[in-house]
Amino acid sequence: MNDTLRLSTRRRYRIVGLWLFAVAAMVFVMVVIGGLTRLTESGLSMVEWRPVTGWLPPLSEEAWQETFAAYRATPEYQKVNAGMSLADFKGIFWLEYVHRLWGRLIGLAFAVPLVFFIARGWLDRRLTPRLVLLFVLGGLQGALGWYMVASGLVDRPDVSQYRLVAHFAAALLIYVALLWVALGLVQRTPPWSPSRGLGRGVLAVGALVVVTMLSGGFVAGTDAGYAYNSFPLMDGQLVPDGLLSQSPAYLNFFENITTVQFTHRVLAMATLAAVVGFWIAARRRPMPARARLALHGMLAAVLVQVSLGISTLVLVMPIALAALHQAVGVILLTMIVWAAFELRPLAERAAAPVVYRSAARSGAGAR
After folding, report:
1. Would you say 359 and 10 are in contact if contact means Cβ atoms under 8 Å apart?
2. Are residues 59 and 45 in the same domain?
3. How many Å separate Cα 333 from the centre of its chain?
């Protein structure tokens, strides 16, 4: 491969990587919108799923009346919002509509450039199936979102917390995959060899962060954040009564409000300790500037995240703070993905595009 062709290939990979970063940013916004939809109880306002024909909202008074009539047949209206006016209904409808529309726009923003890149031969044989798989996962995520909504349209005026967390977990999976692939395309592999301990350590911290975030999903799904609005004690106790009152015991972690909130508190404090501890241990090791910046980003994000979590709790779930808490959680996950990418052992860097591995061996990636 001559120098001119290699430079052209690098530029193409960079364009593809920047596109994936843009899609990841759209997924980030989608997660925030989804959180707002949950916080404002807007998610059950649209009682039909029309993935192909549902682009347009009601455009006439008659259409609005038909849409509102469909909502009035749901358990949420009958048990929670009985007597709601059409104007109030529009207030919750529009947020859910934007949520679904944004999901469709993400699909377009991914599909159209993907077809272009494949048609132009910009993707290698390993990258193409990965991106196609990500597109399929995005479609399945939309179906999972409807599966979640459907759980609140039958008997109970709320969605299943299990389906809510599954939907959230799938969004995080897609987001992390987009970031990881994009990083491999825009950043040359640096000619340094971090210890396996650093790589494994950041992955362990990342796993704890994900578990804590999913625990927060159960807090949202059970409305556990509206109880025990004090910190660090819960109803004046460090370990509250009724912690494992349900049977079988494992259900307490998913359905018992006391246990759900207590578990999230414990995991949040464990995450704070893990990130701070890893930062203290890793900052003494020699590493490139990018890796060190990612570590500092992890530390800053976790400090802000814990502060927001406590503030959201003691102020009894103000929507703005709660949404910001979720957003910063995703930012923390972003910093960890970046740190894991920078600290991955050399043996794991074989998945990078061939042109970047060649650049690293020739010293092109040296700082």
Report:
1. yes
2. yes
3. 8
Spatial separation of the C-alpha atoms in residues 156 and 151, rounded to whole Å = 8
The rounded distance, in Å, linking the Cα atoms of 92 and 41 is 7
User: Tens digits of per-residue pLDDT, 152-210?
Assistant: 998 888 899 999 999 999 999 999 999 999 999 987 665 566 667 888 899 999 999 99
Task: Give residue 261's domain range.
Answer: 191-367
Q: Which two tokens stand for residue 254?
A: 């998913």
Which pTM value belongs to this model? 0.90
CA dihedral over 338, 342, 343, 345, signed as positive or negative = positive
The number of folded domains in the chain is: 2
For 176-201, give the secondary structure using H, E and C: HHHHHHHHHHHCCCCCCCCCHHHHHH
Q: What is the DSSP letter of 305?
A: H
Amino acid in the structure at residue 62? E
Provide the 10 A C-beta neighbour count for residue 112. 10
Q: Which residues contact 64 (CB under 8 A, 6 or more apart)?
A: 58, 86, 90
Task: Determine the distance from the C-alpha atom of residue 35 to the mean position of all C-alpha atoms in its chain, rounded to a whole number.
Answer: 10
